[in-house]
UniProtKB/TrEMBL annotation:
Assigned keywords, A-Z: Membrane, Transmembrane, Transmembrane helix
Keyword Protease: no
Residue spans of biased composition, Low complexity class: 823-836
Keyword flag Membrane: yes
Listed InterPro entries: AB_hydrolase_fold (IPR029058)
Protein name in UniProt: Integral membrane protein
TM region(s), chain numbering: 120-140, 178-196, 258-276, 282-304, 311-333, 353-372, 393-418, 452-475, 554-579, 591-611
Positions of region (Disordered): 207-233, 823-852
Length: 852
């Protein structure tokens, strides 16, 4: 028996690598390989159960594989907890939203996608989120829990967790209580650092592939081991084209240490400053000074584009020394302590919040200067119209939204914790001569905390609801006006596509008598609906989806409105409190703080409950699949980037097939098309000519979302390189299939684009107006229905034929599920196959393979 025929046992048969292989790459939501391949039991041929390649039977003269990467983002319910890292994700996204005037041409390949001033300003803005978070967490630990609650016997009896405090932090030792609170804040900072390290070992540890050796196909382990890059991905020349763009482990380690040092410095400073007020002496002052110097060192180190391990470790050690001095000062604090809020905490918090706002100023200045320069270039004689981009200062907008969300939740948590422990009093302590009263513990909360928490939470919810109602009403009204034109367009296109019309007179008890047209009212509709002459409800739904598809990016204006709301609100609040000298306005504090505290766990609960439903998971998790696409080059505590593993794996699979006489066609949907573009656009540096790669994208957000929101990376020039066939991996033949009803995907060649024609293929949606009597009307396929469209599969078949020249493909038959079949079932002859072009299947798919 030949080895390539498999065995009668449980050992999987070898996998042929020669010939044509179609690799299907799914989008958001973690579509299973069973669904992608229409096979209940596909065979894993590479990777592991988290992200792997699966193969089913051959058809149409080609192997059929699926790259299932959903385990990196969506398969586990624990991933729902990443919703708590939404502000960090926004801060990291903001750094990738830079705009530049040059969006095509050779300049892109010679320069980094962003400038050094922007990278520094974006990192400072991301650090502002870390600092503001650290300030509020430390304030809760030091003031609310350790100093106030720990000093009251009534508060200590509120929960089991207060029992150990009698040993380590007695009532009569405020310094020991403060040291305990600082230790809790330290533990929270270390928790984020450890989580970042664990996710880095699972994602960033996979280095981008490098050529195996000078001789293509020769295995040389020493030459094939990639060397990790020290440079930030945002500073790599050529952006996505650079071979080391996805090598982010060392930079993420460096950035994690700097943010950890900043957190430690905040804890040390906020501990030392009140101790100075309480008379602790030189140790506390030294902690404040050294903590401040550590923060300055972090700010300076963020200007670097290359990881400096020794510098980062030195800064962390300096911050740890400052915290150690603060803890030592706390332990020798005298026993006497005033009641009320922690003395000096007000000034410490004001300085911390003020520094967080100041760190946003460099980004504001940089964005303003860059906007003025782009405007001047646009008005010059050589200027030309640019493709559409994010409406206004995307990096600043996203950082502001991140700060709004984090501050709204954390300020509300401060109020919620105090309310849970005792009775809340607004202020900083009892007045002179005040006498304590028996009963529940009294905890003092600054009025500004309650005021800002309620105003932010109620304001954000109100703005979101009003925005959604206004946009929804506008879309429906506009769709109603479009319905007549949409019906005429659909009838014209169906006629060109050869879709049969419904016969007005048919013989009874024939097949023709069963067919109806969705242009007509339902058979059992009221007489008024059948004689009104207005477009049917089905047509109006198509018109609405077309309108949504054309204006789905309007949601970006919600973030712009949030930013304007924040800026105006900040000016009014400071003017009301500081200029007019009035107290902070207290508006529905109970309601606002309760809602703000409940929203994050409610979102996590909804995600967890719906995680097994692919449809809901795709909708709720799509934001995270977009937000976690880019490397963590600006905020290390953001959710991990799945592309750090997915892009190298997809590239390696293509190389593996090429080196064994195979050719590849990528059929990539939605977010999968972005993965495919990143893999194909990367410079491979392999000797010799690579076989041509076919690329069929469906519902692709490459232009509608990524070129619009991230123009410095997914620029018109980068996409033009793919379209012209001159991609980094070699020759590429590309077709982009889209519907007008797609709210995420769309054409890549738009007004102002330099991309050549012939790439975009617009299909009609719904594919037909015909339906069987008493059956559902034709479904609007929109973004998720490409796989069931016969016209789409014809595009895939044509691409496979083009990539495999000289080989005639047998006639195809496509069923209603989009599965391609031939007359004889599976096709065994998928190209010349021999023993040298076969691969063995991983023996135990539960064990992850080793990556190089």
């Amino acid at each position: 028996m030949r080895d390539d025929e498999g065995s009668a046992g449980l050992v999987p048969a070898p996998v042929p690598l020669a010939g044509l292989t179609e690799i299907r790459v799914h989008g958001v939501g973690g579509t299973t390989p069973e669904t992608l391949l229409g096979d209940l039991s596909p065979t894993m041929v590479a990777g592991d159960r988290v992200a792997g390649f699966y193969r089913t039977s051959d058809a149409q003269g080609r192997h059929r594989e699926a790259y299932s990467w959903g385990g990196l983002t969506s398969r586990s319910r624990s991933r729902a907890l990443w919703a708590l890292l939404l502000p960090s994700m926004f801060a990291n996204m903001a750094g990738w939203m830079a705009q530049r005037w040059v969006t095509s041409g050779d300049v892109e390949t010679r320069e980094a996608p962003t400038t050094r001033p922007f990278r520094w300003a974006a990192r400072l803005a991301a650090l502002a989120l870390t600092l503001s978070t650290a300030v509020m967490v430390t304030m809760v630990c030091l003031d609310t829990l350790a100093y106030q609650c720990g000093a009251q016997a009534a508060c200590r009896r509120t929960g089991w967790w207060t029992g150990p405090l009698d040993v380590v932090a007695p009532l009569d030792r405020p310094g020991a209580r403060l040291a305990t609170g600082a230790t809790v804040a330290l533990a929270i900072a270390l928790l984020f650092y450890v989580l970042a390290n664990r996710t880095r070992s699972a994602y960033e540890r996979v280095e981008p592939p490098t050529p195996i050796s000078v001789d293509q196909g020769a295995l040389d382990p020493e030459a094939s081991t990639p060397t990790p890059s020290r440079r930030s991905a945002a500073a790599q020349v050529g952006g996505l084209r650079h071979p080391e763009f996805w090598s982010g482990a060392l930079w993420h380690t460096h950035l994690s240490r700097l943010h950890l040092a900043a957190c430690l410095a905040v804890v040390a400073t906020m501990l030392g400053w009140p101790l100075v007020q309480l008379g602790s002496g030189a140790l506390a002052a030294a902690a404040v000074v050294l903590g401040g110097l550590s923060l300055v060192a972090v700010l300076a180190a963020l200007a670097l584009d290359d990881a400096a391990p020794r510098l980062a470790i030195a800064v962390v050690l300096g911050a740890l020394l400052a915290l150690g001095l603060g803890l030592s000062a706390a332990l020798v604090l005298p026993t006497a302590a005033a009641t009320g809020a922690l003395p000096g905490s007000r000034e410490a918090v004001n300085v911390g919040w003020g520094l967080s706002l100041v760190l946003l100023v460099p980004l504001v200045v940089q964005q303003s200067v860059a906007w003025a320069r782009r405007r001047a270039l646009a008005e010059s004689p050589a200027g030309r119209r640019r493709v559409d981009v994010f409406p206004w200062a995307g990096p600043f907008v996203m950082n502001t939204v991140a700060m709004l969300i984090a501050n709204t939740v954390l300020l509300s948590v401060m109020v919620f914790v105090a309310r849970a422990l005792g009775r809340v009093e607004w202020g900083f302590g009892p007045g002179p001569g005040a006498v304590g009263t028996p009963g529940p513990a009294t905890l003092w909360v600054p009025p500004a905390v309650g005021s800002l928490a309620s105003v932010l939470s109620i304001g954000l919810i109100t703005v979101t609801v009003v925005f959604a109602v206004v946009v929804g009403l506008w879309l429906r009204r506009a769709a109603g006006k479009d319905a007549v034109a949409v019906e005429a367009d659909l009838r014209s296109r169906y006629a060109r596509e050869g879709v049969p019309q419904i016969q007005s007179v048919v013989e009874p008890r024939t097949d023709a008598a069963w067919w109806r047209s969705a242009f007509d009212p339902p058979p059992f509709a009221p007489i008024s609906a059948r004689t009104s002459g207005h477009p049917s409800r089905w047509v109006r739904k198509v018109a609405l989806m077309r309108r949504v598809g054309a204006h789905s990016r309007v949601v970006a204006w919600l973030f712009v409105v949030f930013t304007g709301f924040a800026l105006v609100g900040l000016v009014l609040f400071l003017g009301y409190v500081w200029v007019l000298g009035r107290g902070a306005p207290m508006v529905l504090v109970e309601l606002g703080t309760t809602v703000a505290v409940a929203l994050p766990p409610l979102y996590v609960l909804v995600l967890t409950a719906t995680w097994r439903n692919e449809r809901y998971r795709r909708v709720l998790g799509s934001l995270f699949d977009v937000g976690t696409f880019f490397p963590r080059s600006f905020h290390p505590f953001a959710p991990p980037s799945y592309t750090e593993r997915a892009v190298p794996e997809l590239t390696r699979r293509i190389w593996r097939l090429h080196d064994n006489g195979g050719s590849v066609v990528l059929t990539a949907h939605s977010q999968g098309s972005v993965l495919a573009a990143a893999a194909l656009g990367r410079e491979s540096a392999r000797p010799g000519d690579e076989p041509r790669v076919g690329l069929v994208t469906l519902g692709s957000p490459l232009a509608k979302l990524y070129r619009w929101a991230f123009p410095a990376l997914f620029s018109d020039g980068f996409l033009a390189g793919l379209a012209s066939g001159a991609a980094g991996i070699g020759r590429v033949r590309w077709r982009n299939v889209h519907y007008l009803t797609d709210y995420i995907g769309g054409p890549v060649r738009t007004e102002g684009s330099v991309i050549a024609g012939g790439i975009d293929v617009e299909l009609v949606d719904p594919p037909t107006h015909r339906y069987v009597f008493d059956q559902p009307l034709p479904r609007v396929l929109s973004h998720t229905g490409y796989w069931s469209d016969r016209a789409f599969w014809r595009q895939v078949d044509e691409m496979c034929q083009a990539v495999r020249p000289g080989t005639a493909a047998p006639p195809a038959s496509v069923d209603g599920l989009g599965t391609v079949h031939d007359g004889a079932g599976a096709v065994g002859d998928a190209g010349s196959q021999d023993a040298g072009s076969q691969d063995t299947v991983v023996a135990d798919p539960r064990i992850p393979v080793r990556y190089r």
